[in-house]
Write a structure and sequence with these properties.
The chain has 202 residues and is an alpha+beta fold. It is built from 8 helices and 3 strands.
Amino acid sequence: MFKNFFLISLMIFFIAACASPSGPELIAKKIEEKEEMKAEQIEINVKNVPQWYLTPPDGKGVVGYFVGQGESASIQVAKDIAVQEAKEDMASAIDSKLSQTIKKFVEQGGITAESSLVGKFSTVSKEVTAETQVAGWSLKEGDVQTTVDGYIFYALIEYVYGDENKLLQQKIKQDNEMLTAVKATEAFAELEEEIKKAQESN
């Protein structure tokens, strides 16, 4: 009887072993399940992307809105990546705005391409852009979503235009050569007018 019981137990074990997936099959099954979970999670995340990320607010040239996205196993790291991406977009917009102003200075001030002033203005523009990345902006919106491997963070930062003009004006006034070259230009008068309007609106 014990022998029969042993044989029956052995058969059940053998059948169970055959029914269960082997090592490689089990790994493949787990990989497949994880990929399915990822696909489902991606679909959910795509549906839940904040509307303000897809269509940032229109600041009418007075306020700039910039978005960024970060993904990481850490919420804080995901947020940092998203904010940095948004700040890079902000810097690009400010740099473009400053470049247009400086182009007017060069044209209206009769500054030639060979003049050392061109390099000075370029340096000043880069300094102003770098300084506005450090301060002057604020996090307007933030949204976090979970993923299979961690988190996605969406950021919307706000920058009120005006500080970059003030910084540019200050740096020009600190250099007599630059100030002498542009102080009589229409572009410099426009810059000072923009600064005045920004101060009155605050």
